[in-house]
């Protein structure tokens, strides 16, 4: 039995309204003459599913919750169900695309099929189109399954030839086999199963109730943790409806600011986000004290976003301008949204990050640089898993930072112009921020609770202003 891990099971059973369990990725592409259309996208995706076989598997629950659910091949797998076509009224504006992304990401995935979808969005202005992927957190584990956007793009316009895919689905096990498999697991690994079986024996009245009970206890702890975070409009329940918007800046400018201020490019990014959040708070006519902070949680490892003028090795700890959160734990830092001076704000962010870096650098030395190798889309998916695991910690907003390709990427001969993550919302937090560096620029994405941040569209201008106010001192 190919059983879900305990963490994947938690994600699966927490999949309900108000808990966004899917991670997304948005690619903006040029429309190359004779290039990508819907049949070509279907063919491209279908030929590469052999690289991520789990994308043709669905989840089967075990009777009475006697064991964790299992992955089984979907014998009725239909690629046209998962790869879909959409369009904006031409010429489609970016705001219309962002609204479409928010609506699509708000809808739950079909739990009777493999837990992913992909949309080809046509009709964008300036001869562009978009690809949106939507994948359940339980599906992407960074080992057996990568985020699908990582395997459909190429380094050149000419797509490499793929071997013929002769996929034959395995027979789906019946309920009796699943029960026997659960009992076998109890006998062979009792240390893992005894608590689960006891819960199933004493408490289960319907399928999966043992896991649901554990999930509810986790949610209770999360609510308690959120209440201990700094007071902020960003705290609160997460409604199903979403708002989504994006922004971008030059990676070279970011590196230039960092070099002139003696800090890391990631410090510049966090300071710019702090400035944007300050503007948003002031736009609400909210009193912002000079010592007010917003607590950010940065999951997994966060690497400097270097431009052409810098490079980075995950195992190199020699530069004082580089920082990382070692291992899979992430770290929490306070963004000084109350500080009106942008240079002082950057200095405060850098000092907090450097303090964390020095305390964790010893443990980070010698690590294999596996995070950059898995690609930015998978990185954001893994960061979402870490954010969920770390949600007991007191923070207001999760921020994921991924380093993407430095050269242009292509999908079926069409150049990828921009790569935006669609960050996962953490329960009881109203905002999630993700960013990816790609081909000389840094692409920011904001995913928010529509009822709390109905004005999210202004965040693009706020972030741009916050970043640009750091530039004059670097000239």
In words, what does this structure look like?
Helix content is about 35%, strand content about 20%. The chain is globular, with a radius of gyration of 23 Å. With about 475 residues, it is an alpha+beta fold. The longest helix has 23 residues, at about 340-365. The chain has a six-stranded mixed beta sheet. The protein has a six-stranded mixed beta sheet with strand order 7-14-13-10-8-9, sandwiched between helices. Mean pLDDT is about 75; it is low at about 195-225, about 300-330 and about 360-375. The chain has 14 helices and 14 strands.
What is shown here, in short?
The chain contains 14 helices and 14 strands.
Q: Which secondary structure elements does this structure contain, and how are they paired or packed?
A:
Layout lengths: L5 H8 L8 E9 L7 H11 L8 E4 L9 E4 L5 H4 E10 L1 H13 L9 E9 L3 E9 L12 H4 L22 H14 L1 H14 L5 H19 L14 E9 H11 L3 H19 L10 E5 L32 E5 L6 H23 L5 H4 L2 H14 L7 E7 L6 E2 L2 E9 L8 E8 L2 E9 L9 H10 L7
Parallel strand pairs: 4-5, 8-10, 10-13
Antiparallel strand pairs: 1-6, 1-12, 2-3, 5-6, 7-14, 8-9, 11-12, 13-14
Helix pairs in contact: 6-7, 9-10, 10-11, 10-14
| Rounded radius of gyration (Å) | 23 Å
CA-CA gap between termini: 61 Å
Q: Count of helical segments? A: 14
Q: Give a quick account of the main beta sheet: strands, pairing sense, barrel closure.
A: 6 strands, mixed
Uncertain runs: 197-227, 300-329, 360-373
How many runs of DSSP E, i.e. beta strands? 14
User: What kind of assembly state do the chains in view correspond to?
Assistant: single chain
Order of helices and strands: HEHEEHEHEEHHHHEHHEEHHHEEEEEH
Helix percent reads: 25-40%
Q: Would you tell me the overall average pLDDT?
A: 77
Main structural class: alpha+beta
Which outline best applies? globular
Q: Give me the side-by-side strand order of the main sheet.
A: 4-5-6-1-12-11
Strand content: 15-25%
């Amino acid at each position: 039995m190919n059983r879900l891990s305990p963490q994947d099971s938690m994600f699966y059973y927490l999949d309900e309204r108000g808990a966004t369990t899917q991670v997304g990725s948005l690619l903006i592409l040029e429309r190359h003459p004779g290039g990508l259309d819907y049949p070509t996208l279907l063919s491209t995706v279908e030929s590469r599913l052999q690289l991520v076989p789990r994308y043709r598997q669905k989840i089967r629950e075990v009777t009475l919750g006697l064991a964790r659910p299992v992955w089984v091949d979907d014998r009725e797998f239909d690629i046209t169900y998962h790869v879909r076509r959409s369009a904006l009224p031409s010429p489609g504006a970016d705001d219309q695309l962002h609204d479409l992304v928010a609506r699509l990401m708000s809808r739950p995935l079909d739990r009777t099929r493999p837990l992913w979808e992909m949309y080809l969005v046509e009709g964008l202005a300036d001869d562009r189109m978009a690809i949106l992927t939507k994948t359940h957190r339980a599906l992407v584990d960074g080992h057996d399954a990568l985020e699908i956007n990582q395997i459909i793009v190429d380094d050149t316009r000419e797509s490499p030839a793929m071997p013929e895919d002769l996929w034959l689905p395995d027979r789906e096990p019946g309920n009796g086999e699943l029960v026997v498999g659960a009992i076998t697991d109890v006998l062979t690994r009792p240390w893992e199963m005894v608590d689960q079986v006891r819960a199933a024996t004493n408490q289960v009245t319907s399928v999966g109730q043992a896991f649901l009970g554990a999930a509810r206890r986790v949610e209770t702890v999360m609510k308690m943790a959120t209440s201990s975070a700094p007071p902020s409009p960003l705290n609160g329940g997460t409604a199903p409806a979403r708002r989504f918007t994006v922004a971008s800046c030059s990676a070279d400018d970011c590196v230039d600011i960092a070099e002139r201020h003696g800090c890391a490019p990631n410090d510049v990014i966090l300071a710019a986000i702090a400035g944007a959040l300050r503007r948003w708070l002031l736009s609400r006519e909210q009193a912002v004290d000079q010592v007010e902070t917003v607590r950010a949680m940065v999951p997994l490892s966060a690497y400097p976003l270097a431009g052409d003028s810098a490079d980075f090795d995950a195992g190199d700890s020699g530069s004082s301008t580089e920082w990382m959160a070692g291992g899979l734990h992430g770290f929490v830092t306070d963004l000084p949204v109350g500080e009106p001076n942008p240079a002082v704000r950057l200095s405060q962010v850098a000092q907090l990050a450097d303090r964390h870096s020095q305390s964790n650098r010893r443990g980070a030395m010698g690590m294999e640089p596996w995070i950059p190798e898995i690609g930015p889309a998978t990185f954001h998916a893994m960061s979402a898993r870490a954010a969920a695991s770390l949600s007991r910690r007191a923070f207001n907003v999760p921020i994921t930072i991924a380093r993407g390709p430095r050269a242009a990427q292509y999908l079926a001969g069409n150049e990828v112009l921009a790569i935006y993550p669609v960050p996962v919302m953490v329960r009881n937090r109203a905002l999630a921020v993700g960013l990816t560096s790609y081909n000389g620029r840094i692409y920011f994405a904001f995913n928010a609770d529509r009822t709390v941040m109905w004005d999210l569209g202004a965040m693009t201008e706020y972030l741009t202003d916050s970043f640009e106010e750091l530039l004059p001192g670097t000239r």
